[in-house]
Amino acid sequence: MKLAPIFACLLLAAPLSAEDGWVPLFNGKDLDGWTPKFAGHELGKNLRDTFTVQDGMLTVDYSNWKKFKGEFGHLFHDGEYSHYKLRLEYRFIGKQINGGPGWAHRNNGVMIHGQSAESMDKDQPFPDSIEVQLLGGLGEGPRSTANLIMVGCPTVMIDGEPNKARITESKSATFDGDQWVEVMLEVHGSKLIRCHVNGEPVIEARDAKCKDGKPLDSGTISIQAETHPIQFRRIDILELDD
């Protein structure tokens, strides 16, 4: 599996035009190009129609669920990516499903440099990947977004030191309510991860590696179904030269 040298999450004030080379991964109409995988279920099964398109927005919808029993889900985009910018606009809506863990309240993420959906075990809850965590505020106290989580095998360097923590919090603001948040993730293989939220740099990591010490240069992109409803009104990619 390969990764890219720079990851950056940027929040931009205005959309970029098609002439800028951006390509939508989400077409605003259906889930073409995306494949669901839920823990305990076969690849391709969209459990209880959780991933859906509503009013032109890719939606993680729990209206057909009665209770969560550990069926964490991911929606994988086709193929693998290495050098690119990925721009997202997301917002949390509604209430968390009954049975969802407390830490998953207003919690989602975009998984980058992930293993393929086909290589996941049937009961595996999360793909080995680097997660850029997408969080909403809880109405009191700070809660940053664009935190970095090492899921499974990856490791990175933070401030010149090996990152020993599974989760590294960013310095972003807190986003309470159902407001839209725009994030851009810039990826250049295994060399550098940089995140900006609302134009402000909030976290930087370098030298992503697999468990065997090899550079993590590329992988899949996926979004989560992690018990709280969320909507994405745009997911665009701009592929970069190596």
Question: Summarize this, please?
Answer:
With 242 residues, the protein is mostly beta strands.
Write the layout of secondary structure elements.
Blueprint: E1 6-10, E2 23-24, E3 34-38, E4 51-54, E5 57-60, E6 73-77, E7 83-92, E8 107-114, E9 129-135, E10 147-151, E11 155-158, E12 161-162, E13 167-168, E14 181-188, E15 192-197, E16 200-209, E17 220-225, E18 230-239
Would you write up a description of this structure?
This protein is mostly beta strands and 242 residues long. The protein has one domain: Sandwich (Jelly Rolls). It is built from no helices and 18 strands. It has strands spanning 6-10, 23-24, 34-38, 51-54, 57-60, 73-77, 83-92, 107-114, 129-135, 147-151, 155-158, 161-162, 167-168, 181-188, 192-197, 200-209, 220-225, 230-239. The strands form two sheets. Strands 1, 2, 4, 5, 7, 11, 12, 14, 15, 16 and 18 form an eleven-stranded mixed sheet that branches. It has a seven-stranded antiparallel sheet with strand order 3-6-17-8-9-10-13, with no helix packed on it. Strand 4 (51-54) and strand 5 (57-60) form a beta hairpin. It is globular.
**What percentage of amino acids are in beta strands?**
35-45%
Number of helices: 0
User: What is the CA-based Rg, rounded?
Assistant: 17 Å
Mean pLDDT: 90
For the record, the count of structural domains works out to 1
Number of strands: 18
Class from secondary-structure proportions: mainly beta
